[in-house]
From TrEMBL:
This is ABC transporter ATP-binding protein. Residues 3-237 form the ABC transporter domain. The keyword ATP-binding applies. SMART domains: AAA. It comes from the Bacteria.
Length: 270
């Protein structure tokens, strides 16, 4: 499986958000989309999920325009987990994850569906929550259940919008290890939106850095996460070092701002 995005421009009503985006994503690769708030990351992911139609350009999966794929077929190819999802009515964890099997279920739940769901619950250490209702879970537990539901679709392509935002550090690593393991073992194409750039560096093969609805830089984490790129895109001076398990990024600027304020306050007091 491969995904090509060619000259994609789109927005909301007459307000164009993404401008002439080109991307190519390969099987078994983990790609992170990063960039400041409002850069257009979610809009881009929604367009890959065929939720938002392009105004120009095209998103192609294996050479086929995603807009021409029927939604039931698309659900077997790709799973999308939005930033916030609510079911609208009360479901247990088991029922929620079972919803991921919906594209495959014709007349009723089969033993194989139950096996897939139970295996995922165990893998994500959610088995003890199976009978709990979704509104009885913490934000982080709910986020893991939604990831389990996406994985139950057994997609070739997984689109996750800030999948670790509600998770503590141990669960962040756990989820990203599972997702990366799936990419490497099963050849799933994974696209993540991440705000934590150290996690993006650690778990991604490829990074696309967006600025104002355009691709400012793309390549390996080492190529993209450079001090000049960070300053140009985030407006923050950073020190970036290679560390044993990825990259270490330290913001330099906030410290200076603080020192300037302190200086200003002490001068006023005098
Ligand atoms: N439904 C909508 N209607 C109109 N404008 C929208 C809508 N959704 C998003 N936008 C605007 O599109 C721009 C890009 O939003 P988007 O959610 O794609 O950014 P993002 O990079 O994912 O941001 P964040 O990091 O804050 O989640 C923003 O200026 C936002 O206000």
């Amino acid at each position: 499986m491969f995904v090509n995005i060619e000259g994609l421009s789109l927005g909301y009503r007459s307000n164009i958000i993404l401008h002439n985006i080109h991307m190519s994503l390969g099987k078994g690769e983990v790609t992170s989309i990063v960039g400041p708030n409002g850069a257009g990351k979610t809009t881009l992911l929604k367009s890959m999920a065929s939720i938002l139609p392009p105004q120009k350009g095209v998103v192609k999966i294996d050479g086929v325009d995603v807009r021409s794929i029927r939604s039931t077929d698309l659900a077997k190819i790709q799973a999308y987990v939005p930033q916030q999802a609510s079911s609208g009515f009360p479901l247990t964890v088991l029922e929620t994850v079972m919803l991921g099997r919906k594209p495959y279920i014709r007349w009723g739940v089969k033993r194989q569906d139950l096996h897939i769901v139970e295996t995922l619950l165990a893998e994500l250490r959610l088995e003890h929550y199976a009978e709990r209702y979704m509104d009885e879970l913490s934000g982080g537990e709910r986020q893991k259940v939604l990831i389990a539901r996406a994985l139950a679709q057994q997609p070739n392509m997984l689109l996750l919008d800030e999948p670790t935002s509600a998770l503590d550090i141990r669960h962040q690593l756990e989820v990203l290890e599972i997702v990366r393991g799936l990419a490497k073992r099963s050849g799933i194409l994974v696209v993540l939106i991440l705000h934590d750039l150290e996690l993006a560096a650690r778990y991604s093969d490829v990074v696309y850095m967006l600025k104002d609805g355009t691709v400012f830089a793309n390549g390996t984490p080492e190529e993209v996460f450079t001090a000049p790129n960070m300053e140009a895109v985030y407006g923050v001076r950073m020190e970036i070092e290679q560390a044993a398990h990825g990259m270490k990024m330290t913001a330099v600027e906030p410290l200076q701002v603080y020192q300037k304020e302190e200086f200003y306050v002490s001068r006023c007091t005098i």
